Amino acid sequence: MAVLATDALNPGVRRREVFGWAMYDFANSGYTTVIITAVFATYFVGGIAGKAPWATFAWTAALSLSYAIVMLTMPSIGAWADLRAAKKRALMVVTAGCVLSTAALSFAGPGSVALAIVLVVLSNTFYSWGESLTAAFLPELATRDAMGRVSGWGWSFGYLGGMLALGLSLAYVLWAQAQGIPADRFVPVTVLITAGLYGAAALVTFALLRERAVPDPQAGAQGGVRASLQRLRATWAQARRYRDFVWLMACGVAYQGGVAVAVALAAIYAEQVIGFQPQETMLLIFVLNVAAAVGAFGWGFLQDRLGHKLALGSTLVGWIATCLIAAATTTKGGFWWAAAIAGFCMGSSQSAGRALAGLFAPRAQAAEFFGLWSFAIRLSSIVGPLMYGAITWATGGNHRIAILATSGLFVLGLVALRRIDVARGRAAAEA
Hints:
Layout: H1 15-38, H2 40-48, H3 55-84, H4 87-104, H5 113-135, H6 138-141, H7 147-178, H8 183-208, H9 217-222, H10 224-237, H11 243-274, H12 278-306, H13 308-328, H14 332-360, H15 366-394, H16 399-417, H17 422-430
């Protein structure tokens, strides 16, 4: 925490509190790394669904369903949390839901496609709710001029959690394979490792993070759901005032769709197209997390100096290069280069997007605006993977065409980014 100067924090905020906030990124990153990216995704396609032609599409459809649920519910949940000053309470509830439903994935074995899909939808929905709620604390913790640094610090710390969960899982998998234990027996253990680490690390967040918001006295009289929906409608009615936030949402829908493809399908691409073995895939994702941590941490400091718009635009160019390299390469070495660039861009682009959302969010409506940001991100998470899965199905399993098409999402993100005026969006949030 020595790298985080106190002038980056709002008055009354202590470094230990930022550490507690960052620990939630540390806690939940294992879920995306092990369940969504490295281990369970490939196990679902190859083990549970038996490499059926529709397996990749079924995986992306399950994720898309969970994102649709979040997209439709998170803005109202965020508005409710703002009115009731209940971000921390809501975060505790959805964390418990994610930990339990993730642990239940250990019961999914070969042939149990329906069970696996239901549990993936549940766990990913709870995870996504938690991700949005914890992001809403950022404007309370960091000053406007240090959003990038604090956001980047949290993201980089999060990737360390992902590496720990994946490292423990990889160590167990290598031991299990040496003992001749099959995947349908060692994958459930990695699932339990992930759920346990998530729950344990989140306890640090709940112990250190404070709820600084003050309840709206009208919330009780109006009723929670009714008040939150009225407030949400008022925000949409004022969308012209927050047009830079709206353009940021459009940019996020585009580029985060591509990021969602990388998160959900990188391991599947590595094994199905390049020929990686499971242990090689886990090592690949581990290194990708190292690059992502470096990108989030380093770029977090740079974006406050260079400007958030330039920082985000630079990472989108890197993502385009990643897609082109991945589509063209036929060797494991070439794919390693693509993964390294993707890792760096993943950390920096996600950090920059969250920092901009925090910059454009009025402090009194932080959870609500991050609920809207979550709406955009989850919409992108439907568009990207579902588009990828549909292309592979339509082309008889041609992943190269699908990853090439993904580069178009980052191009659209650059187009939307050009319409954003950071100074104007910041002024609207502060008015």
